[in-house]
Amino acid sequence: MIIAIDGPAASGKGTISKKLAAHFQLPHMDTGLLYRAVGYAMRDDLDLPNWEQVAIEKAQTLDLAQYDENDLTTAEAGIAASKVARVPEVRAALKQVQIKFAQQPGGAILDGRDIGTRICPDAEVKLYITADAPTRAERRTKQLNERGVNVHFDEILAQIEKRDADDKDNPAGAFFVAADAHLLDTTKLSIEAAFQAALQLVDGVLAQKKSSS
Ligand SMILES: Nc1ncnc2c1ncn2[C@@H]1O[C@H](COP(=O)(O)OP(=O)(O)OP(=O)(O)O)[C@@H](O)[C@H]1O
Ligand SMILES: Nc1ccn([C@@H]2O[C@H](COP(=O)(O)O)[C@@H](O)[C@H]2O)c(=O)n1
Predict the structure, then answer these.
(1) Would you say residue 97 lies in a domain?
(2) What is the pLDDT of residues 161-189, one digit of tens each?
(3) Whose CA is nearest to atom 9 of ligand 2?
(4) What are the binding positions for ATP in this chain (predicted)?
(5) Ligand 1 atom 16: the closest Cα is on which residue?
(6) CA 178/CA 139 separation, integer angstroms
(7) Kindly report the CA angle at 211 between 100 and 200, in degrees rounded to 5?
(8) CATH assignment of the domain containing 195
(9) Is residue 135 part of a domain?
């Protein structure tokens, strides 16, 4: 079974994906980390005249295991990720990694921006997790502050809104709600309530598929 989970920055898709993965005992891939790793690897190279070619080479030779997740989950790495994500050949290289992960026996859960629309268009279940931008910024600010990173709500909100807009109008991307995705707005939900709502949606789709097969 493949579960595809998409949504905007800091919407809680990773949190829900990890909990669903534990529940269904499926491997999980946070595909944003792939783009973040390429962005982080490019941190000193993004001003080079040939930065796109350098990014393509880094994506084609990416070994995610070589990166520390703390380095990848910074606001700066998110901004760099959004930039390299606009290069079609970077997306093509990372698509191969994602498809290989999705096709392992028994299935998988992947979360990102284009999982239901492009990477796994035939996924059994597709969820689109969202929350309003101030709520997402508040959660991300709290997350970074708790890690000792001194950021303010206003700057994080501005970054999230810019990243959402850039991702949505990325001509190389496919960040939109898949026609067969189930929408879940977590703005007013606790983590546990959001997980239970997601689980209910997944169970509902699986029950419907079982009864019609
Ligand atoms: N429903 C919720 N209520 C409160 N906090 C939440 C909720 N969902 C997630 N969070 C918190 O918000 C932060 C961001 O969540 P998470 O990393 O799951 O988002 P994401 O969509 O995967 O982010 P990214 O865009 O970076 O991939 C985390 O600190 C998480 O614990
Ligand atoms: N499937 C994906 C996943 C991510 N991106 C780009 O990476 C950025 C960081 O992603 P997070 O999920 O960690 O926030 C994101 O803003 C996108 O630009 C992507 O294009 N496709």
Answers:
(1) yes
(2) 999 999 999 999 999 999 999 999 999 99
(3) 32
(4) 7-15
(5) 12
(6) 25
(7) 65
(8) 3.40.50.300
(9) yes
Nearest CA owner, ligand 2 atom 5:
32
What mean pLDDT comes out for the span 17-25? 98
Residue range 131-163, pLDDT digits in tens:
999 999 999 999 999 999 999 999 999 999 999
Atom nearest to 82 CA in ligand 2: 18
Ligand 2 pocket test, pick from 28, 113, 127 with the greatest ligand atom count within 8 Å of Cβ, gives: 113
* Residue 14, annotated as binding a ligand: yes
Q: Does some domain include residue 6?
A: yes
Ligand 1 atom with minimal separation from the 112 CA: 27
Is residue 21, in this structure, part of any structural domain at all?
A: yes
Place of tokens 């990325």: 170
Substitution candidate for ligand 1 out of 13, 15, 35, 79 with most atoms within 8 A of CB? 15
Residue 141 to residue 104: CA distance in whole angstroms: 35
Is the shortest distance between the CB of 136 and ligand 2 below 6 Å?
Answer: no
Domain that holds residue 149: 2-205
Distance CA 138, CA 147 (A): 14
pLDDT > 90? residue 213? no
Whole-angstrom CA distances from 30 to 13, 16, 101, 188, 196 are 9, 11, 11, 24, 20
Number of domains observed in the structure of the chain: 1
Rounded to two decimals, what is the model's pTM? 0.96
